[in-house]
Specification:
By secondary structure, this protein is an alpha/beta fold. It contains 18 helices and 14 strands. It has helices spanning about 1-15, 30-40, 55-65, 95-100, 105-120, 150-165, 200-205, 205-215, 240-250, 265-270, 275-285, 295-315, 320-345, 365-375, 415-420, 435-450, 465-475, 505-515, and strands spanning about 20, 40-45, 70-75, 125, 170-175, 220, 255-260, 290, 375-380, 395-400, 425-430, 455, 480-485, 495-500. The chain has a 6-stranded parallel beta sheet with strand order 2-3-4-5-6-7, sandwiched between helices. A 6-stranded mixed beta sheet has the order 9-14-13-12-10-11, sandwiched between helices. The chain is globular. The N and C termini lie far apart (about 70 Å). Mean pLDDT is about 90; it is low at about 345-360.
Length: about 525
């Protein structure tokens, strides 16, 4: 009986160890502290948990007071996807801007500055960077989260990002394996499918993962996508062929395999969260990410019990669960040693980073703004451009944000222009029916009156209503400035066309400087 109880207790602890749940609030709820004490291996932080750096630091101290080896994870890609600065927008441009500049030293410096900020707040695992090659310009969920459409460029910047982040003592989690770039479906809503051959998969989608694994990336996140050439029946997150056969055995990855959010509909609607989590562990995943939408004790306990029951019923080998839990603990040990080393005078490089990457080397306090300025591309119109010096009318055509980005983080240039040109008027128009685009343009022209118009768009190539409204505004007011803050795929238009390659706050600042003549592109 005693041995049975001990075995049951160990199973329960291992099942809790492999979970990475979220929670509500800016302080830790009692239920979360209880589960951490009982063996919960990690927590995931989202925008709902963060208000200020000081608050985040206090929250993480509260969590670690229960157990120092807790993994504190965050989904902080910077750029369009920020949790650290969800209220005001990111101080760092995202991957597309960095890939556009194509300076791996700059990418490493940006990632290192972000890592130092995360580490200072007590975060030690970042579910980033995105290593997806954005091969499909109509991709609704990756887009500017990718370094670009070229596999070689994406690979070298993924490696640089991993080096910079891990030099700060924060573990990188390269995602979304085996590559989410060539999809036209958002896995938050349904199951994407990638129909390519093995040659294309290896030369394009797998290249950034292969090189980042060789560079020492501590974690890899799986994608909820179906890749028939690899497994015609199971999505990557649930596929032994993909997670064990390809990632572990063929690519030689020995770190932590984390699932994408299990409450996403690609998994939850087909398999259910509990069964899906068991299948993921059996396939080779080590950590179950859940909590972007589900964030309560019942979810955690339900998953724990489902995992224990699967072991008891023979659906999940006990050795597989023990191995997964051991990998979580190994990464927690690395992060704990990284935190301790960083606190020691003269601490420089952490295990698993590139030789020669020093903490703080070449990184300036405003490296994010420097990078955003360098990413700006300007196309002048037919007439010489006159900078905006009088208060303009800024109209933002806003598409529906995908779930990864969220709609709570502000974007655009309106706030930044207000700082430079007091009196600036602003308006935002969200998705409208295509047949109403002409009326929308008339509304914009009437509201602008004789003010200069600055039209801000995001992925205009993907939204016919947006393109129609913009063209109507330009036809009537050719002196309009156009700012594209998404993928720069459409033909440049306007008296000045500014492509920022992302919608982070610093990207808006960089655009505003060009609009007002405060700085030229590339300064």
């Amino acid at each position: 009986m005693t041995n049975d109880l001990r075995a049951t207790g160990q199973l329960s602890r291992d099942a809790l160890t492999v979970l990475q749940p979220g929670f509500e609030g800016t302080t830790a709820p009692d239920w979360l502290l209880r589960q951490i004490a009982d063996g919960l291996g990690a927590v995931g932080l989202f925008g709902r948990n963060i208000t200020t750096p000081e608050q985040l630091t206090a929250l993480n101290a509260q969590l670690r007071a229960e157990r120092d080896d807790l993994l504190v994870a965050i989904d902080e890609e910077s750029g369009d996807v920020t949790r650290l600065e969800v209220v005001e927008g990111s101080s760092f441009p995202g991957n597309y801007a960095l890939g556009t500049v194509d300076d791996t030293g700059l990418t490493r410096d940006v990632a290192h500055a972000l890592g130092r900020r995360l580490a200072a707040c007590g975060v030690d695992l970042n579910w980033a960077p995105s290593a997806d090659v954005n091969a499909n310009p109509d991709n609704p969920v990756i887009g500017v989260r990718s370094f670009g459409a070229d596999a070689g460029l994406t690979a070298r910047h993924t490696v640089a990002y991993v080096h910079g982040l891990q030099a700060a003592g924060v573990a990188a989690c390269v995602k979304h394996f085996p590559g989410h770039g060539d999809t036209n479906v958002d896995s938050h809503h349904a199951m994407p499918r990638i129909d390519v051959g093995l040659d294309t998969l290896h030369a394009r989608d797998l290249l950034p993962f292969r090189e980042s694994i060789a560079a020492g990336a501590k974690a890899v996140m799986s994608a909820h996508i179906l890749v028939p050439v690899l497994d015609a029946d199971r999505p990557a997150t649930l596929s032994p062929r993909i997670l064990t056969g390809l990632l572990r055995e063929e690519l030689g990855f020995d770190g932590l395999i984390v699932t994408d959010g299990m409450e996403m509909q690609a998994i939850a609607a087909v398999y259910g969260i509990e069964r899906g989590s068991v299948l993921a562990l059996a396939a080779g995943a080590d950590a179950i990410c859940v909590g972007g939408g589900l964030a309560d004790e019942a979810t955690v306990l339900g998953l724990r019990d489902a995992i224990v029951a699967a072991v008891r019923d023979g659906d999940l080998p006990e050795e597989r669960l023990a191995d997964a839990a051991a990998r979580v603990r190994a990464l927690a040990d690395w992060t704990r040693r990284a935190r301790a080393a960083d606190a020691e005078p003269g601490a420089e490089v952490q295990e698993g980073t590139a030789p020669g990457v020093r903490a703080g080397a070449g990184v300036t306090a405003d490296v994010g703004l420097v990078a955003a300025r360098r990413a700006v591309q300007v196309t002048p119109g037919e007439e010489p451009y006159e900078p905006v010096t009088e208060p303009p009318y800024v109209v933002t055509f806003s598409p529906e944000a995908n779930i990864a980005v969220g709609d709570e983080t502000p974007w655009g240039v309106a706030g930044e222009l207000k700082d430079l040109v007091p009196g600036t008027l602003t308006a935002t128009h969200a998705d409208v029916p295509a047949e109403a685009a002409g009326d929308l343009a008339g509304e914009v022209l009437a509201a602008a009156a004789d003010r200069r118009i600055v039209a801000v768009v995001r992925d205009v190539h993907r939204h016919p209503w947006m393109a129609t409204a913009l063209d109507a505004v330009l036809a009537a007011r050719p002196d309009t400035v156009v700012v594209e803050m998404g993928l720069n795929r459409a033909e440049p238009k306007g008296a000045l066309h500014i492509a920022t390659h992302g919608a982070a706050r610093v990207c808006g600042r960089a655009a505003a400087e060009v609009i007002t003549g405060a700085k030229s592109a590339g300064d």
